């Protein structure tokens, strides 16, 4: 499994969840944010997780209160990572257009597929187990609130 594979799966899911949460469920925003940040700081790549901690803090997660705030948080976080990776940034409008028509359940399943692939080596055992715990917790949570998302 490559960084590109699990990275794309993660970004697609984060953006889709932020875009597709129904406006009548603002009570889920802070919980979704918490799960997103937990996944980011427990990525399959320890180096990436360390950078994610810094980037998350710079994006001011404590200011996220609404669906719009969550969408902008994920967009800003993604652009910070793109800058670090020397990839092009995208505008907020481009982000909204891209994820507006995403299908929630297939995106969640895509994420589940790539995050369940094991990485080899003894050194990765603890990282993999920790990642699996956070991924499984997120997936259980999403299953319980799937009706709160546009499909």
UniProtKB/TrEMBL annotation:
Pfam families: Evr1_Alr. Residues 1-99 form the ERV/ALR sulfhydryl oxidase domain. Keywords: Disulfide bond, FAD, Flavoprotein, Oxidoreductase. GO terms for molecular function: flavin adenine dinucleotide binding; flavin-dependent sulfhydryl oxidase activity. Transmembrane segments: none annotated. InterPro entries: ALR/ERV, ERV/ALR_sulphydryl_oxid_sf, ERV/ALR_sulphydryl_oxidase. Its cofactor is FAD. This is thiol oxidase. The lineage of its organism: unclassified sequences, metagenomes, organismal metagenomes.
């Amino acid at each position: 499994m490559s960084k590109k594979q699990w990275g794309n799966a993660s970004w697609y899911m984060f953006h889709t969840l932020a875009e597709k949460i129904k406006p009548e469920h603002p009570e889920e925003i802070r919980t979704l944010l918490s799960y997103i940040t937990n996944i980011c700081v427990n990525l399959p790549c320890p180096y990436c997780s360390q950078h994610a901690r810094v980037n998350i803090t710079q994006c001011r997660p404590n200011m996220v209160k609404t669906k719009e705030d969550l969408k902008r948080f994920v967009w800003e976080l993604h652009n910070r990572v793109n800058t670090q990776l020397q990839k092009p940034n995208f505008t907020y409008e481009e982000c909204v257009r891209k994820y507006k028509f995403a299908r929630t359940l297939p995106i969640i399943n895509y994420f589940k597929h790539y995050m369940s692939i094991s990485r080899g080596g003894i050194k990765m055992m603890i990282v993999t187990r920790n990642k699996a715990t956070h991924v499984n917790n997120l997936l259980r949570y999403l299953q319980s609130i799937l009706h709160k998302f546009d499909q």
